[in-house]
Design brief:
This protein is α/β, with parallel strands linked by helices and about 675 residues long. The protein has three domains: about 150 residues, Chitobiase/beta-hexosaminidase domain 2-like (Chitobiase, domain 2), CATH 3.30.379.10; about 375 residues, Glycosidases (TIM Barrel); about 130 residues, Jelly Rolls (Sandwich), CATH 2.60.120. It has 20 helices and 30 strands. Strand 8, helix 4 and strand 9 form a beta-alpha-beta unit. Helix 4 runs parallel beside helix 6. The longest helix has 19 residues. The chain starts with a helix and ends with a strand. The structure holds ligand TNX. Ligand TNX binds next to loops.
């Protein structure tokens, strides 16, 4: 009898536990990011049911919280969940204490952010359905005492809305997802060669013209937008709305205007801002690569003053990112005014001229009460002000250099933090920094990487980056390419930024991440679960000859492609013109196969034939058109013996000075 009662009791406890917990990790809580101090009280529960109310006396937070749980602004006898500020709590900024007891739950934040993060941790104790909003279920919360605060003050995510415009609502949703992971900064990359996305009231033409590319826009189509004019921009009113939305969620938006390079879009609107460098564009079908601000043109600083004065008013962030990456300095050497300035200043390296320019921009942003942020190249000349915060993107060496020179630094090298990189070898994404897995990002350990204590002291935190060259095409493949690319890598980043090194362990994180997947499902995050399935059918390499109407830049290119060598592909010497062709001829006719035809880099939509036809021939002489190229590619199925396949361009120009040729990937079709 006694045993039966015990067994019954055990079943009850176990089922109560099952409501809220899955036992993936030793403490069974699966919190993410892992808090600093968690003390569990065995066997006791706080019973939450539909009559439980949450009392929160911070109006801003109550507004946020009421989407999830029933909240009240006044104390009532039934308000047994308390959320409040407690500035005398002994924790650093953004810290909180969460106490769950059978009779009461209390979240106390040392500041607004602390209370917000305490609430985020509390929500993770609920069934994941809490993230669907309007929670009305009963559940049991295990008794714990958590005292927690972040390891780093900069827990950033970068978002490039210049290459691919994203509607405001999508950014807000992304911000929501980031905030749930205790990320606190969104670095918004607002301008680049491909577009100017922020309204400047004193210069409306910047967005009227500069926010669009393709079609009849003066900004060249690239990355898959060609015949159609494509783009968009944010009005200042929209950006203010975004800033407020993010502030409720403890996310500061750091806007970036990328200077002095990456400025083709503004240069198409106001050509005088760029160096007056003559160039022969004929080889590139007119494509103009001049994209660097003229350092010697005084009016440029008046224009920049207009721009930053308005931005400073829209964005309350203390930080303003002014760019500094990948400057084509040859344009300065070729510019009579810049080269004269270079001489008169006694410079010996054009990086000094870059810092000269950026120091002037720093003066402007500081005039409007902002502190400058720059990309790592900005310090190469040795003369950039130490007021600047440096984003180290190139590699870890760049971060070491910045910290050893005394710059406060955000660590974000591509090989660890670029979430536009592929997540496995054969899927969509850039690959210049290799395959970036959540584990790679999670496992960053500054000491092991060789940073000295004095350098670590200058590190503000870490940042993930989402560059969006491929977003335009990526989102045709994935329902939400942005989420697919950033989650769960953001989860790894979040814990790297929040949790002290001594408490971080990949195996443990991986288990918690699995359980956290259920939360992400409820949050509506289309995160990546696994690599996409490989195409059906066996890959074959029938004997083939490749030829083309375009001159190749390397003599062995066509021979190599003919034997399926080099899946990176080969460049032509010029861009494509209407009528150009690539021909694949097969020694034995192909039958019952699927053929993937690609122009441009594989998995990266650059250097492609933007518009064209796929033609097939049964006899090797007469061709008929069977498909259109879409973003430079097409997949066709052959069900009759076929001797040749030809890609024929109907476009002149592709926004590049070259085309990339690929061999076709051929699969047998299983009947
Ligand atoms: C390098 S990172 C860039 C970006 C590209 C990115 C693609 C940096 C400061 N410059 O312009 O979008 O690579 O991964």
């Amino acid at each position: 009898m006694k045993t039966r009662a015990l067994a019954l009791l055990f079943t009850i406890v176990a089922s109560v536990q099952a409501v809220c917990l899955s036992a993936a990790t030793p403490d069974g809580l699966n919190l993410l990011p892992q808090p600093r101090n968690v003390e569990m009280c065995e066997g006791e529960y706080f019973r939450f049911d539909p009559t439980t109310t949450v009392h929160c006396n911070i109006p801003q937070l109550r507004r946020y919280l009421s989407d999830y749980l029933p909240t009240f602004s006044w104390s009532s006898p039934r308000s047994r969940v308390e959320v409040r500020l407690n500035p005398s709590l002994e924790v650093p900024k953004e810290g909180y204490r969460l106490s769950i007891r059978p009779e009461r739950v209390v979240v106390e934040g040392v500041d607004y952010a602390g209370a917000f993060y305490g609430v985020q941790t509390l929500l993770q104790f609920f069934p994941s359905t809490v993230y669907e909003g309007g929670f009305r279920e009963a559940c049991s919360l295990p008794c714990v005492e958590i005292t927690d605060w972040p390891e780093y003050s900069h827990r950033g995510q970068h978002l490039d809305v210049a290459r691919t415009f994203m509607p405001l609502e999508e950014i807000k949703e992304f911000v929501e997802h980031l905030a749930r992971h205790k990320i606190n900064r969104l670095h918004l990359h607002l301008t680049d060669d491909e577009g100017w996305r922020v309204e400047i009231l004193s210069h409306p033409e910047l967005t009227e013209v500069g926010a669009w590319r393709g079609g009849d826009s003066p900004i060249w189509a690239i990355y898959g937008s060609f015949d159609e004019k494509y783009g968009g921009y944010y009005t200042q009113a929209e950006l203010r709305e975004l800033v407020a939305w993010a502030a409720d969620r403890c996310i500061t938006i750091i806007p970036e205007v990328d200077l002095p390079g990456h400025s083709l879009a503004i240069g198409k609107v106001i050509p005088e801002v760029l160096c007056p460098v003559e160039r022969d564009n004929s080889a590139a079908a007119g494509y103009d690569r001049r994209n660097v601000w003229c350092v010697a043109r005084e009016e440029n600083y008046a224009l920049l003053d207009d721009i930053f004065r308005e931005l400073a008013d829209v964005f309350p962030s203390e930080w303003m990112h002014i760019g500094g990456d990948e400057v084509g300095m040859k344009q300065w050497a070729d510019c009579p005014h810049c080269s004269a300035l270079y001489k008169s200043e006694g410079y010996t390296d054009y990086s000094q001229l870059e810092a000269h320019f950026l120091n002037r921009v720093v003066e402007i942003v500081e005039r409007y009460g902002k502190r400058p942020v720059v990309w790592n190249e900005a310090i190469n000349g040795g003369n950039l002000t130490h007021d600047a915060l440096v984003c180290g993107w190139k590699d870890m060496e760049a971060c070491k250099k910045a910290t050893s020179e005394g710059y406060r630094t955000v660590v974000m090298p591509g090989s660890w933090f670029y979430f536009d990189m592929r997540q496995s070898a054969k899927e969509m994404g850039h690959n210049w920094a290799g395959v970036v897995t959540p584990e790679k990002c999670y496992s960053v350990d500054l000491e092991t990487l060789g940073f000295k204590e004095s350098q670590i002291a200058l590190i503000e935190g870490f940042e993930g980056a989402f560059w969006s060259e491929l977003h335009l095409v990526g989102r045709e493949t994935f329902e939400c390419y942005l989420e697919y690319m950033t989650f769960p890598r953001v989860c790894a980043l979040a814990e790297l930024c929040w949790t002290p090194q001594s408490l971080r362990q990949w195996g443990d994180f991986e288990l918690r991440l699995k359980a956290h997947g259920e939360r992400m499902n409820a949050m509506g995050i289309s995160y990546r679960h696994a690599a996409p399935p490989a195409p059906q059918g066996r890959q074959i390499t029938p004997k083939m000859t490749v030829s083309t109407s375009m001159p190749m830049s390397r003599s062995e290119a066509l021979d190599k492609l003919s034997v399926y060598a080099n899946d990176w592909g080969y460049r032509t010497k010029r861009t494509c013109e209407d009528g150009d062709w690539i021909l694949y001829e097969f020694a034995q006719p192909l039958d019952n196969v699927k053929v993937e035809l690609t122009t441009g880099y594989r998995h990266v939509t650059r250097g492609l034939i933007p518009m064209g036809k796929v033609e097939v021939s049964i006899d090797g002489h007469t061709f008929r058109s069977v498909a259109d190229l879409h973003n430079g590619s097409a997949t066709i199925e052959l069900s009759r013996p076929t001797k040749a396949i030809r890609l024929r361009s109907t476009a002149t120009g592709n926004g590049e000075s070259f085309v990339f040729l690929q061999y076709p990937i051929i699969h047998t079709l299983t009947k």
